[in-house]
DNA sequence: CGCTGGGTTGAAAGCGCATTCATCGTACGC
DNA sequence: GCGTACGATGAATGCGCTTTCAACCCAGCG
């Protein structure tokens, strides 16, 4: 009653288990007649090769992994929430998953995914690590120390995190041009809209992405001859709720209020939009708002959010390429890819609103071309 | 230079491999002092337990799988396409993946995903099947015959496909209330908007979902005392491009043109919207259009698409529950869950347009509550 | 007609871990 | 103080498959 094994098939077909194995691993090395006998027996018995056994014997799994934090906004989990529908909008990690799955499949690998809650990642990662030939990790999903140990044994590529940690600089990295993207975005705010009093709503200091974006923000000031801010004007979490909080704090603060706010990501910016609306602050007239990420939700809100679009799917694809390359040559130099981003000008920064409706060419007026400027890391 | 194994750790810690194993599988059965020694050695060596070996020895993988077709609209793959951005919108399978991942994690499983192209699914499924303890399959992703063989050896749940195939009726199923959803939707068209000349744009006959929806369409006619259509007025593929084709065929056909068209899914309906716009046909004045699925894109188009929303994430969650349940009791009766759907009234059917902009409560006016009616399979 | 070599197939040795079963102490009970 | 039972640990076996290495078969050649 147990699942049939090579032995069963071999017995049934009147051959040795080696031959059964060959039928699956190297069909051409088995005579056609024999092969048919084996295949027939396998079909009859309902034989499915054990991935575990195969993996054990051949010392590889043909599976790639992805560990990502469970980013879901808790709000979005609540079906009664106003944000209910946002959950349907594709988030960061979904895109990466898609990209990795495609690329992995192309290379003959399957994809194992595991989101990690704040709680017990220790177990999670080791678990994943033990099952795959290599895997990608979204930055800060896994404690450095643990990654260090694991990466000694199998290829790991870090996603969306700069090579900051010395202990991890032997890892391959894929990231987007955070610095240049925010630089271009801020430059747009300054040069095209004439803003001089800008604020930056950042995330925790240990968010490499956020920090890089802030540096781009600084650089734009430097470039324009404006006083360079030393640090983000406010720091909060990366959710919509936190974005509301951030903008509230900014506005309630005494002193001059800014004329434009750059948020560390789109979710925060979207949250801020709600809060601003609630307060009667007009966007972009009273305050310009920009985000970063290019989540679909950004186009649905009013005003539509100006942002920087990241090629998230490509992030996943590149991760797989790096993994495969390293699997092929363990000794190669650590690689680091920086993917180009593009500024998406919509109305929240003061750019003219564009028609988001059906037109002659497609259902969406917001084509990928106009209003964008591609930017590559220098 | 090979990855360290239990033997290495055991040697380093001065214990037997059995003890090392116990430290990981049943920590409490090892004295605290010993445990620490082992853990220390493991850390030092960079030991990561081999999932393959563990799986082989314990006869289970703690991994659940998901096989789905690669639904992506080929158009969406073309970065120059007008649909470029649609790719960012969450598609059917992404939601299922999310749902399954969550539920699987809750039960201590990882998730292995594999999309299958039209080409070599044979290999794919066997590959997945050999690596997991059980898996879910989107209907029609895998040939019946193959599924039949595999499902004899491990739990398989069929997603979004009715239990039509006798060879597969021992499988657990999860589906949505296609019939009742389309019934409610069509009823809305007839009763609330007074339509009497409706058309149905269906998909291939072997699409169980599409057929069930059509039967709901028929039922609404029957209920209203209208002549019951024998078959869909047109059948095409499920993509946007095919939707354009379908509506074109419908309009070019001689005889009376319908006043409302129900499409088998949202993607087709969205495509139709483009074609109608191109032809100068006003929606909903000249022709009402409704879809099915509730994809986010449906809300972005103009006019916003009236549709039936499926709880796709729950589909994934329920699949895992069923899998886990069967893993716990192989002998249980085949279960079949039907998830409720809800009609989402937007403007493409003639319902008043609703404000999709920021309001006091959230960035989206299209809350999950108003304009919907929940429907459960009878 | 014996020999050689290529093409097939079989025997056997692991792969790294879980899991009995046996062993060894040792705390306890009488 | 001795037997007992229980807790902790080790030895050994096997999970199902891949992979040499060797054996074998037969065609072709000298």
Automatic annotation (TrEMBL), chains A, B:
Which Gene3D superfamilies does the record match to this protein?
3.40.50.2300, lambda repressor-like DNA-binding domains
Supply the alphabetized keyword list: DNA-binding, Repressor, Transcription, Transcription regulation
Query: Where is the HTH lacI-type domain positioned along the sequence?
Result: 4-58
Q: Does the keyword Phosphoprotein apply?
A: no
Which SUPFAM superfamilies does UniProt cross-reference here? lambda repressor-like DNA-binding domains, Periplasmic binding protein-like I
Superkingdom assignment: Bacteria
Disordered as annotated region, ranges: 350-378
Listed GO MF terms: DNA-binding transcription factor activity; transcription cis-regulatory region binding
Record Pfam families: LacI (PF00356), Peripla_BP_3 (PF13377)
Please report the name of this protein according to its UniProt entry. LacI family transcriptional regulator
């Amino acid at each position: 009653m147990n699942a049939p094994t090579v032995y069963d098939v071999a017995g049934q077909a009147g051959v040795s288990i080696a031959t059964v194995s060959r039928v699956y691993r190297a069909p051409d090395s088995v005579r056609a007649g024999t092969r048919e006998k084996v295949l027939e027996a396998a079909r009859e018995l309902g034989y499915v090769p054990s991935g575990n056994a195969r993996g054990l014997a051949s010392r590889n799994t043909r599976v790639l992994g992805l560990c990502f934090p469970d980013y879901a906004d808790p709000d979005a989990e609540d079906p009664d929430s106003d944000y209910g529908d946002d959950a349907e909008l594709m988030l960061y990690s979904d895109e990466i998953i898609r990209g990795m799955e495609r690329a992995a499949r192309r290379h003959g690998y399957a994809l194992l995914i595991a989101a990690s809650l704040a709680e017990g990642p220790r177990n999670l990662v080791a678990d994943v690590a033990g099952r795959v030939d290599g895997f990608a990790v979204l930055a800060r999903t896994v404690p450095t120390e643990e990654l260090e140990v694991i990466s000694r044994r199998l290829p790991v590529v870090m996603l969306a995190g700069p090579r900051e940690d010395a202990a991890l600089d032997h890892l391959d990295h894929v990231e987007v041009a955070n610095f240049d993207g925010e630089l271009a975005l801020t430059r747009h705010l300054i040069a095209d809209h004439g803003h001089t009093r800008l604020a930056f709503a950042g995330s925790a200091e240990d968010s490499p992405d956020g920090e890089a974006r802030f540096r781009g923000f600084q650089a734009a000031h430097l470039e324009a001859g404006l006083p360079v801010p030393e640090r983000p004007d406010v720091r909060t979490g990366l959710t919509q709720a936190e974005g509301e909080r951030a903008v509230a704090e900014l506005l309630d603060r005494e002193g001059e209020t800014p004329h434009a706010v750059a948020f560390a990501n789109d979710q925060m910016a979207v949250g801020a939009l709600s809060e601003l609306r609630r307060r009667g602050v007009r966007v972009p007239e009273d305050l310009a708002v920009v985000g970063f990420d290019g989540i679909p939700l950004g186009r649905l809100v009013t005003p539509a959010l100006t942002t920087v679009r990241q090629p998230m799917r490509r992030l996943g694809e590149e991760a797989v390429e790096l993994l495969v390359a390293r699997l092929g040559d363990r000794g190669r130099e650590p690689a680091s890819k920086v993917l180009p981003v593009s500024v998406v000008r919509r109305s929240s920064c003061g750019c003219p609103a564009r028609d988001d409706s059906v037109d002659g060419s497609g259902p969406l007026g917001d084509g990928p071309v106009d209003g964008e400027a591609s930017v590559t890391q220098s």
